[in-house]
Records
---
Amino acid sequence: MQIIVIVLILFISLFTHPVLSQTTTKPSPDDSVYTPISPKEQEQKKLANQEANKAALMSALIPGLGQIHNKKYWKLPIIYGGGATFGYLIYYHKSNWTTYQDAYNDRLNGIALTDPELDQYSTDQLKVLRDDSRRYFQMNVFFAVGLYTLNIVDAYVDAHLKEFDVNESLALRVKPFFYTTNYSHLAHGLTFSFRIK
């Protein structure tokens, strides 16, 4: 057992290199330098933010209007198709819920059920059907609210992304990085260089 532990410690020590947390390397000319934002750029960012707020408000008032504002017409069938589907499912499960609730209450109060389809169920089965319909109703309301929220968030984000600059001057370079520490051990790593404009 001791031999296995010693071999394991030797094996681990062969592949570990001391790495210092702070180094004194000169910055490369590729490093970016902070440049203040000009008043014109500040005004453009302010206008872009106002456009995004406007698109979100439009989608909050009338679902899909923010997508029309952003000229993303292909999203309208998704929004209105999802809204119509959830609207129908909410109506369907709400009507089943009230039907089963009334039948369950009538059965508990000793009133004879007039619907032969409901009369075939026991009291426990009516309770299970009522609870299932209520759960499906609540779940579809939750999904409809989620779709409405997603509609607003999509319009807001899409309006912001209209102003996002995508051209050839945006780049990411990954290079290997080797250096020696104070103890003459070789340390290695990766260098990520972002170039923006």
---
Amino acid sequence: MKTQSEGARPREENPELYTVARGSGQLDPVVKDIARLAAQAVIDQKGGRVVVLDVSGRTSYCDVLVLTTGSQARHVQAIADAVVKAYKQGRNERPLGVEGTASGRWVLVDLGDVIVHAFDGPMRGYYDLDGLWVDARVVPFSELDLEAPGPDEAGDDDAWPEDDEG
């Protein structure tokens, strides 16, 4: 790469080199199907604070993130297991990887273009992926042909730590 003294143009003169392509707002049908499978599995397992984020064009490793909170380690593991099972049954494929099942505090399920993060409350607050991807589009459940979980179905909201620190 050329340095500025060797003739490289600064960012202002060559913005296309620094611009990240943004997603069109429409998910690829295959990605949408995988996101639907994953989100439904999370909802069925009573995952709390389920958020589906469209990060296409913002990262090279996936197009969609599904974030959820479990009430305890076993719940986090059960959510991840349900996602893996739904993916195997729905797509007849195995996930690319599953990490974190031993501790159950944060389990990542890699479904290729869709990555599911299941956290316990303190870990979700600590890593704050919701805040990290604040500029990503939140995919409405209706776009995935899913019903949003009601308050009785949304899992344990107490799993989300309140900001008591002052």
---
Amino acid sequence: MLPISICLEWTVRTTSLLITGEDILAIIFTCNHCPTAQAYEGRIIQAVKDYAEKSVDFVAISPNSAAGLRLNEQGFSIVGETLEDIKIHAEFYGFNFPYLYDGESQEASRAYGVIATPHVYLCDKERKLRYHGRPDDDEKGDNIKSQDIRDGIDALLAGNEIPNKETRLLRLFDEVGE
């Protein structure tokens, strides 16, 4: 079980979003420089639009410290991973959700156990963790068979359990050969 209360305390200190009382909270750890995270940005923006009237809050958190990036990782984005950079990135790409920065302390990222981006966590009204994993099963978005974040949100909105409570992250496992 994730130490969700630690994470929520950190996020509440950062934004008042979590105390709005929406039935579902989608927390998405993402970043500016990762090609996989970038590939999902448009689908996340669309999901926020699609669930705008359905008691779902979305928040994104950047877990990356600019000092921790290797030079070869910085070639995928026009900006880096500082607080100012994520503000520029969010505005340029039209993020319609808060985009928080955890790069200095990585307190929330460590508490959640984030290992790659994007990494989605869905919490119910009591803020109990109900799902964590990938947004869907196709990085490019051309052949999606499992819309994990949407399926999870829909199940929770209907008062049901999420059948797959955890899915593997795409890019991370491809890179380590699993």
---
Amino acid sequence: MDRRCHLELILVRHADAEEHSSDGSDGGRRLSALGEEQAAQTARALKKLLAPEGLVIWYSPKERTRQTALALQVQLQAVECIAMDALATGHLTQVQFAWQESAAERVCLVGHQPFLGDWVADLSGVRLPIAKASVTLLHAEHPTSPHFRFLGHLQGSLLARLAAT
């Protein structure tokens, strides 16, 4: 029996990445120097904004999202930080099943456009562009709820200012 009374989703788009990977694959693209700084700033800002207790981080297995997720894990001390193929392929129903099966009340999804933007629209009805190193916050009264309340969207420039304070 699921005793959770709500679910907070934190959707993070990966930070800036290099144009090409050393092996020529999209999945191997690493964060650029700017992206490494963006990921660190995003993590520091979220540490100031969120209560990290019980946070889990799920990320696309692509290298740039893995690097972004690890920066978040270091600052937020997530209890779990694992790769999930559905975040790379855009299969929202697989991600929904995972959060419904998880005991976590806070789930951070580190992924890509256009999937993150589509998911925000599908879950909350809010359409917005999801820039690199930005964060979108959603809340549901229950993990199985089909509708989430849009709590806010933080662009990278605001996150950088928060991280610096």
